[in-house]
Amino acid sequence: MPFPELPNGHALFVLLLTVFALYLFRRDDIPLETSCVVVLLILTMGFTFAPFHNFNGHLEPMEFFSGFGHEALVAVCALMVAGQGLVRTGALEPIGRLLARAWKVAPLFSLLLTLLIAGVLSAFVNNTPIVVLLLPILISVAVRSNRSPSGLLLPMGFATIAGGMATTIGTSTNLLVVSVAADLGLERFGMFDFLLPASIAGGIAIVYLWLVAPRITPERQAVMKNTSPRVFTAQLHINEESYADGKTLAEVIGKTDGMMKVKRIHRGSDATIMPMPDAIIRAGDKLRVTDSPDRLKEYEQVLGARLYKAGQEVNEDHPLTAENQQLSEIVVTPGSPLAGRSLKDVSFMNQYGLVAIALHRADRVVDMHNKGLGKVTLHVGDVILIQGGQSEIAEFKKRGDILVLDATTDLPRSHRAPRALIIMGLVILLAAVGLLPIAISALGGALLMILTHCITWRDAMNALSAPVVLIVAASLALGIGMTETGAAEYLAQAFVSVLHGAPPAVLLSGLMLLLAILTNVVSNNAAAVIGTPIAVSVATQLNLPPEPFVIAVLFGANMSFATPMAYKTNLLVMNAGGYQFSDFVKVGVPLVLLMWVSLSIILPILYNF
After folding, report:
1. What is d(CA 510, CA 495) in angstroms, rounded to the nearest whole number?
2. Between 20 and 30 A from 331 (CA), which of 48, 125, 343, 462?
3. Dihedral (C-alpha) 426, 428, 434, 436: value to the nearest 10 degrees?
4. Model pLDDT for residues 38-52, shown as the tens digit of each residue
5. Torsion sign, CA atoms 576, 409, 386, 315
6. What is the mean pLDDT of the chain?
7. What span is annotated as the signal peptide, if there is one (predicted)?
8. Order of strands, sheet of 271-273, starting from the edge strand that comes earlier in the sequence
9. pLDDT-wise least confident of 105-109, 204-208, 280-284
10. Among 123-127, 273-277, 366-370, where is mean pLDDT lowest?
11. Are strands 409-410 and 383-389 parallel, antiparallel or unpaired?
12. Cα(203)–Cα(209) distance, rounded to whole angstroms?
């Protein structure tokens, strides 16, 4: 079969722009948002100054902006907002506690359980919060077992990507492929239409990630060390068996190596005693203390006391929670009351009702010489991470004498977790049974998350990712250009020409491998949108059903295992685990080949090729 002649000028322009776009998306020194806007501008200006007419009539340049209102983008954004409800309410944290307990009993089985849970959750929820949830758990497990976390973090991250392939809402890539295919005239895929091949290939991937990947991953030093920087106010109940009974407060604090800070001593139902060093602690007293969860539990053990918060004993089933608490960052500026002084000098906690958690100094690591953060002399330019109630931080901002960065983060509202889970379940159920398109059910779920106070409008805005929005819009615009100008048909003819005479199964496998290579070099969303019209054109020219070719594109575009920049969760894992680029190649390339071979066998069997 001869190689097709060059396409018309407009198609050639779109093809060259696509290559340029892929180059821009690959550049780390150019913000992705900038690259997307540049591509959109070049595309629209090109068709404005050189109008294009085809059998459908005149192609209006404004059509390239239709991606901003496309149902795929609406669904992606709505799911990001709804998923934020699970994060903000801490709805996934019970799963984390379950895994943490399991690791103490059977580490090898727990790794498999972690991979399975990560994969299953990622089929229905954006995998970024899942990775964020599991990272500190696995690092903590590694620290307790005196082992490197390298063999745990990378398999977990890859498991979430593999699990995301299973449903139409598993990743934004899936939503884009399904939506673009529907725009091209195909019958819309149901939520679980490709669950079977994804589950088989995903199961093979899980076995590889469980038994092989940890053994071939080079040992690296994790960057994340302190995985729980938040602080909590709680009460230590002193009983008759406690070390503190009959001791002075100074002796009790000394027992904790001087680390415990007692704010109040409550005695009986009404009496409150000032925490003076010579105050005698008695059985029945309640010491009000503020610190990190690990230290509070350590004080409980050292003193033989019982730890309570809000009248509830603290344990694994009822962990410490901080309602309406926020994290924020403040900067020491010239003229600030903190410049040249310590937090203790200005009575920071008592004056502002806020707790300092961590300190960042740009030029070097701060050596506290075991004297604690409160006694460190602060320099101009220091950034301090603080925690406090929402109202306290709002009031702190109004004072204006200390610069507060726009980086405030709310802590989980755990009592709203059940309603967040119910809402997310309804979103999935309504879309799965076909009562509502996913764009509508997800949008309704996002609104319910706000109306039920699982998140605020600010949370919703923070959940939206500008790079994701713009890459989807730019990719859809390129897809429109390729389809309308005939560029996609030309690429399909070239692809068929190169593999002329090959069986359909080989063509399908080759297309999937092409997308797998492309997605590890550029954005997976861009690869998906560009590959989908090519897949439909290939199937049309071969007079074959297009569905398996579209699914091949979907699976290939999701094989983002071989490079850290292939998927955003890869970057999270890379940073947390201290991995290098070569580690992803070493572990990810075999996984790409394994899934490609598996699906190259499974798909032809399922579709009778």
Report:
1. 9
2. 462
3. 60
4. 989 999 999 899 888
5. negative
6. 80
7. none
8. 271-273, 262-267, 286-291, 232-237, 306-309, 312-313
9. 105-109
10. 366-370
11. unpaired
12. 10
- Using DSSP's 3-state secondary structure scheme, residue 233 falls into strand
Where helices occur in 218-362 by DSSP H, the ranges are: 249-255, 293-303, 348-352
Q: How many CB atoms lie within 10 A of CB 389?
A: 15
Q: Are 155 and 138 in contact (CB under 8 A)?
A: no
With contact defined as beta carbons under 8 Å apart, do 514 and 573 qualify? no
- 349-362, pLDDT tens digit by residue? 778 878 777 777 65
Q: How far is CA 2 from the centre of its chain?
A: 47
> Going by C-beta distance under 8 Å and a sequence separation of 6 or more, which residues neighbour residue 22?
518, 521, 522, 526
Residue 199's CB: how many other CB atoms inside 10 A? 17
Average pLDDT over residues 50-71: 80
Query: What CA–CA distance (Å, rounded) separates 329 from 197?
Result: 47
Percent of the chain clearing pLDDT 90 (strictly above): 16
**Token representation of residue 281:** 């602690």
H or E segment and range at residue 149: none
Cα 520 from Cα 527, distance rounded (Å): 9
Is the CB of residue 473 less than 8 Å from the CB of residue 73?
yes
Contact call for residues 211 and 203 (beta carbons, < 8 A): no
Q: In degrees to the nearest 10, what's the CA dihedral of 113, 118, 123, 129?
A: 150
Q: What percent of the residues of the chain are helix, what percent strand, and what percent coil, each to the nearest 5?
A: 60, 10, 35
pLDDT, tens only, 294-348: 678 788 888 999 887 666 676 665 666 666 677 777 777 766 788 888 888 888 8
Which amino acid is located at 68 in the chain? Answer: F
Q: Name the amino acid, one letter, at 490.
A: Y
DSSP for 550-562? Answer: HHHHHHHHH---S
CA angle 130/135/141 to nearest 5° reads: 130
Nearest to 214 by CA among 110, 130, 303: 110
- Bridge partners of 266? 272, 286
Q: From residue 550, give the alpha-carbon distance in Å to each of 1, 9, 544, 596.
A: 24, 27, 12, 15
Retrieve residue 524's tokens.
């997976």
What's 265's DSSP letter? E
* CA–CA distance, 555 with 539 (Å, rounded to integer): 17
Amino acid identity for residue 199 in this structure: S
- From the number of C-beta atoms within 10 Å of its C-beta (0-12, 13-18, 19+), residue 275 rates as middle
Sign, CA torsion 267/270/272/278? negative
DSSP run (H or E) holding 464:
none
Spatial contact of 131 and 569, defined as CB atoms under 8 Å apart = yes
The structure tokens listed for 130 are 């899942």
Residues 450-467 have a mean pLDDT of 82
Within a 13 Å sphere around the CA of 115, how many CA atoms are in the beta-carbon half? 26
453: left (phi over 0), alpha (psi -120 to 50) or beta: left
The token pair at 11 is: 């198609």
Q: Of 252, 155, 169, 262, which is closest to residue 210 (Cα–Cα)?
A: 155
3-state secondary structure of 571: helix
Q: What is the SS3 assignment for 327?
A: strand
Output the pTM of the full model: 0.62
